[in-house]
């Protein structure tokens, strides 16, 4: 609620906040996939050490 109020009161804040949300829509799924891929590679290597 605080962020919505700040965005309603300040156009620059609203623009920056929207930009961050738009970036997160792209970056978060990519980063999550990259982390899953890295974890899989690490596990594959760890399995060879057993």
The major β-sheet equals:
none
**Structural class designation:** mainly alpha
Series of H and E elements: HH
Helical percentage: over 70%
Number of domain modules: 1
Distance between the first and last residues' Cα: 51 Å
- The tally of strands reads 0
What form results from the Cα inertia axes?
Answer: rod-shaped
- Residue ranges: pLDDT <50 for 5 or more in a row? none
Textual characterization of the structure:
The chain has one domain (2-48). The chain has helices at residues 2-9, 11-48. It is rod-shaped. It is mainly alpha-helical and 50 residues long. Helix content is 92%, strand content 0%. The model has no long low-confidence stretch (mean pLDDT 96).
Describe, in short, the structure shown.
92% of the residues lie in helices and 0% in strands. The chain has two helices and no strands.
Main attributes?
50 residues, mainly alpha, 0% strand
Itemize the secondary structure elements and their pairings:
Blueprint: H1 2-9, H2 11-48
